[in-house]
Amino acid sequence: MYMIKKLAESIREYRIPSILAPVFVIGETAIEVLIPYLMKLMIDNGFSQEDLGYVLKIGGFMMVAALVGLVCGALSGRYAAIASAGLAKNLRQDMYYHIQDFSFENIDHFSGASLVTRLTTDITNVQNAYQMIIRMLIRAPIMMIFSVFMAFFINARLSWVFIAAIPVLGFTLFFLMRHAHVFFIALFKVYDRLNTVVLENLIGIRTVKAYVREEEETKKFKEASDGILFNSVSAEKLLVFTNPIMFFMVYLCTIVVAWLGANMIVSETMTTGDMLSLITYSVQILTSLMIVSMVIIQCVMAKASGDRIVEVLDEESSLKNCENPVMKVPDGSIEFDHVNFGYSSKKSKYILKDVNLKIPSGSVVGVIGGTGSSKTSLISLIPRLYDVKEGAVKIGGRDVREYDIETLRDNVAMVLQKNELFSGTIESNLKWGNPDATREDLDRVCKIAQAKEFIDNLEDGYNTRIEQGGRNVSGGQKQRLCIARALLKEPKILILDDSTSAVDMATDAKIRKGFREYIPDVTKIIVAQRIASVMDADIIIVLNEGEVMDVGTHDELFANSPIYREVYESQMKGGGMDE
């Protein structure tokens, strides 16, 4: 019930169509139940009495009733389509907006492929089920009630024949649906796995081809696809019995009613019109059960999908604003006060341990360390992409948890390790940093990021189209565009997470020189593997296995830090000998 209530919250402005659809369905159903009774009157009082006027009169009523039923059916279908499509639209919107508020920790709970499946396949299943519920699931019980009433009104004795069939069919449907539900739950999990395989393959297609791994990727796809086949077939093996059982009961009841009815007609205890109308009502009653079975099948699928949708909607962001958050960041000073952090709550799995750092505003800070030394995790705490487990990260003298999250992130520009450009023009990508930026602003930041020259050499300049993921620009060009985009935010803190690894050392040096000349008051944190990128920094932090081993200038670390000196000599010795 909770799942239904949660999904129903997204109906909102589509409540009126959701009400009108069942109303017109009831009208359509009432007309369909009335027509067999009119037919009975026509046969018994018109044809049997050879009263042409009566036949024409009842025939006229039947034509008007059929026309009204047609209009009601069309309107019910229209409003059901509007309501179900509107629910799907609102669910997608609610899920998508809710996902935007997720922290990195929340996103880690779901795979990207799983979220895509929930936003597409799962919502489509709920949409189809909702349309069936407000139309067919209303129609079937109403038709059954009306038909039973009319059947008993005409001949109570024969009516018990198909009334006895209802519990049998109901039990059969319940049994089949209950066991099929298990396979549908497993089915959607396999869909997630299939989408993951496809997504990874398409994104990494160059790597797949470079390593000639097409056969292995095809094998992974086949395994996921076979899983979908197995669960689909397993569910259908149960559901395939639904229609044969339903039709068997319909035909059996029809035969029994016809047999008994014929005997009653012979004994003149029943008219021909009574029997024909009873057969029609028996078909309507049992057809209503068939409709219910179809809706239940869809609802079984939709329940599994609905649970997955609600799981996303119920996911609470692990990062929330405090009461009365601070709306202004005074400067770019940073302090790590006994910080401990891990992606797990277990202390034994902390990856940053007792980090203590003080970084003055406007400083140039270099961060180096081996692979897995938690450099990215360290800088992710500054814009509060994650919250510390113990201790505090402070900016401008205040704990980052005291700031409004949007305000904090507007003042911290971060160029991530994996640069991302979006479909559009170079200008539209740059304006992610500032939608109101002028062409002069673009020129200024692109000059600092050493991107101006290659943009000017493009035929369309800033209007050059960028393909999805920036596939049509080089790695170095992509990095420079991402740096320019971050500079447009005019932040108080700029973080570059190994963001110049694809540019040559000369361009790297020009970028760092531009930082010093044009943004001296901005705190600049440069995470790098290349020691040449941080040698001229005011402060260099040496990380090793999540611990700060040494802090100082290049000269201080070269004299006192064995780790720093070893890295320096391994990278710079060859260059020094060449010089």
Structure in words:
The chain is an alpha/beta fold and 579 residues long. 64% of the residues lie in helices and 10% in strands. The protein is built from 20 helices and 12 strands. The protein has helices at residues 2-8, 15-47, 52-100, 104-109, 112-154, 156-163, 165-203, 205-210, 214-239, 242-266, 272-314, 375-380, 405-410, 426-430, 439-448, 452-456, 475-487, 505-518, 554-560, 562-578, and strands spanning 334-341, 352-359, 364-369, 390-395, 398-399, 412-415, 424-425, 465-466, 493-497, 523-527, 539-544, 547-552. A 6-stranded mixed beta sheet has the order 6-9-10-3-11-12. Strands 2-1-4-5 form a 4-stranded antiparallel beta sheet, with no helix packed on it. Strands 7-8 form a two-stranded antiparallel sheet. A hairpin with a 2-residue loop joins strand 4 and strand 5. The radius of gyration is 35 Å and the shape is elongated. The model is unreliable at 575-579 (pLDDT under 50).
Quick recap of the structure?
The chain contains 20 helices and 12 strands. By secondary structure, the protein is of the alpha/beta class. It is elongated, with a radius of gyration of 35 Å.
Write the layout of secondary structure elements.
Blueprint: H1 2-8, H2 15-47, H3 52-100, H4 104-109, H5 112-154, H6 156-163, H7 165-203, H8 205-210, H9 214-239, H10 242-266, H11 272-314, E1 334-341, E2 352-359, E3 364-369, H12 375-380, E4 390-395, E5 398-399, H13 405-410, E6 412-415, E7 424-425, H14 426-430, H15 439-448, H16 452-456, E8 465-466, H17 475-487, E9 493-497, H18 505-518, E10 523-527, E11 539-544, E12 547-552, H19 554-560, H20 562-578
Parallel strand pairs: 3-10, 3-11, 6-9, 9-10
Antiparallel strand pairs: 1-2, 1-4, 4-5, 7-8, 11-12
Helix pairs in contact: 1-11, 2-3, 2-5, 2-11, 3-5, 5-6, 5-7, 5-11, 6-10, 7-9, 7-10, 7-11, 10-11, 15-17, 19-20
